[in-house]
Amino acid sequence: MKNSRISRIIQLLTTMQAGKSYAVEDLSKMFGTSRRTIFRDLKELQAIGVPYHFDSDAGGYVIDPEFFLPPVDLDLKEALSLLLLVHKVRGEIQLPFSKSAMLAALKIENNLPPNIRRYCNIALKNISAVVGAQAPVESSGGLDAVFTQLQNALTRKRMVNIRYNSLAERKIIDLELSPYHLFYNQRAWYVLGHSSLHKSIRTFKLNRIKNIQITDKCFIGGEDFNAQEYFGRAWSMIPEGRIYDIKLQFLPKVACNVTEVKWHSTQQVTHNSDGSAIVEFRVDGLGEISWWILGYGDQVRVLAPRALRKRIVEMAKNMIKINEKG
After folding, report:
1. pLDDT by residue (tens digit) across 105-123?
2. Considering the entire predicted model, what is its pTM?
3. Which of 283, 291, 288 is nearest to 244 (CA)?
């Protein structure tokens, strides 16, 4: 059984840490792979910050002798859970500092007992994670750069100037932001803070930030900001300022799939003898939940409130009108 790429990179790192220099040809023979693969693995080590270089006198690659991987003491479940997060979820969700996470995984794997390492390598080959589509970050430097500057500003209580591609305003806007909170929701990272342009607390999607610059200005407030209180009973992340009692009937075809998920903190479920289910929520706003309901098409009926039923009917009619054209 061939070793996975991760396993091979760990072995490459361990081999080079022995203090000797190795030519690419030597490493290629040692690991039974091509020169191109070795160069690709060396490039991965460089990307995650392993300080190696080519020693022209020795004629091979060596790792800085001061670089070391500290020992860790993890049992099988602890090791597998961490490696699962880094190797399988890291590639599916846009995590800041993902290369650092990769290096952390290498450190963990490099110091695991041989039997645990072998088990983890075999287990990880048979596990996958599919999270969903992710929104790419437009700003130069990518997610790491934007996230780092916002985190830095948030910690130091500094305002930031951002240039933002606003879908709501349909144009590029410039504003000064006092960042209060960073959070991930479904497909992207967001920052919550007070906007000088809007004179209120707003949410900005990190992937739409085109430019960001930390200023010397300090902002006052934000210490007691509570994201959970701010979102309140919003369906996802946009509170509208009015609470609605939602009552939906899901038909038998989808009832089980819907009710096995906890969609909202206020969710209440009643299963009917015909296989359908009544699902009730107490939600702030109708906008976000409307799109969720439409995703179930003709398998859901809006029982209450009347305003939500009317909105869904209008949206469905518009869908039909748009799709009947041409």
Report:
1. 777 777 788 888 888 888 8
2. 0.66
3. 283
